[in-house]
Amino acid sequence: MKILKFGGTSVGSAERMREVANLIHNDEPKIVVLSAMSGTTNALVQIAEKLYLNLNEEANAQIDALHDTYKQVVAQLYTSENKQKQANELLNHHFEYLRAFTQDLFTVHEERAVLAQGELLSTALFQFFLEEQSINSVLLPALNFMKIDENEEPDVTYIEKNLAAELEKYTGTNLFITQGYICHNAFGDIDNLKRGGSDYSASLIGAAANASEIQIWTDIDGMHNNDPRIVKNTYPIAQLSFDEAAELAYFGAKILHPSSVLPAKQKNVPVRLLNTMQPEAKGTLISAESQGGSIKAVAAKDGITAIKIKSGRMLLAYGFLRSVFEVFERYKTPIDMITTSEVAVSLTIDNPKNLEAIVSELKTFGQVEVDHNQTIICVVGDFMAERTGASLKIFDALKDIPLRMISYGGSENNMSMLINASDKVTALTKLNDGIFERNTAHA
Ligand code: ADP
Ligand code: ASP
Ligand code: MG
Q: How far is the CA of 412 from the centre of ligand 1 (A)?
């Protein structure tokens, strides 16, 4: 069994959906995970914002505009009148459901139900298309097996059991379609795996089904060595280890959801990043193997807050760090980077939701300083093999940029620097020029 996930751009129009149908039309058993059509989740986020503010007229206008876009897709996708009718009825059903929210109290629960509509629509429309093409497939509702627990972590046991039960209902079927991103939560409400979460769905499904491979089909030919939205002359990386890919995803390489590598790694299922617009391109293979020997890539994570706790009592005081970490644990706030000296500890978080409460508790340990608008620059590669040269090259490239924190040695494949967000573009550009060994294959 293979898992193939197609992102928003890959299913972003009638034409693209046809291409996806071509790509998946063979006898190999597979589960196809679809995102919402590109632009839809953003539109739903905006609609929800209007609904929160009770701006019902504006919300309705945006719902109508989105409905019109989908009507055009339906007109272009299906050839038979029967399927056009069926698909338009489906649209009416979903868009009436959205319009009904203007009548009700709007809370986070309703918002999540609104956000789920994109994936429900794309998968249903795609299933209709396969039916019209007489391609045998089954639409599996992700809400029947995808679940997060009270800590918003995937409930892996539940997912395994319920996915297996769903698949068992259809022995003899080789092609399953399901929604990325959406799930139920511990309270039985509709929820989601956060923006970009369809990659995470694919990886969780791949792990649960013990898949032979997880393919992430997107609009670029694999993981590039640097952020192609910011830096020119980036190139795809042929192979990455799970750990290297996980670091890049977590530290800002948007091609993968931050948590999406772990489930695949735990079950040792290789992940392949492929380009729907260029299906013959090799892409990136992520597996347990490490090629070693070089710096592979750079990524940047924005929206970071740095917190420094200065305390005279830290010197020689065992238990100090534990007390600090307990504060973050109480507020369920993960720490990304940490550096220490004899008198102070600096750390970073990317979720400032409970910052005020955290800072006020930390003040009981000493003086606390907070810096907002920070960016983590993460360099990924094999630092064991390159131990003597890599850091020199990195610091030389960044010599004109103030470094707020440096983290090295935490793992063998990551070196991170904290900088002001305003220096990000310069840092990524300088690193691109300074640290990669270009060869003709990359030119
Ligand atoms: P999808 O909708 O298919 O999930 P995304 O937009 O989430 O696609 O991810 C693909 C995009 O990620 C690319 O178009 C690219 O602009 C961006 N990206 C950021 N960093 C990287 C990187 N290091 N390598 C490849 N793509 C990257
Ligand atoms: N549709 C969701 C989003 O736009 C999930 C995804 O595309 O992965 O964030
Ligand atoms: Mg994505």
A: 25
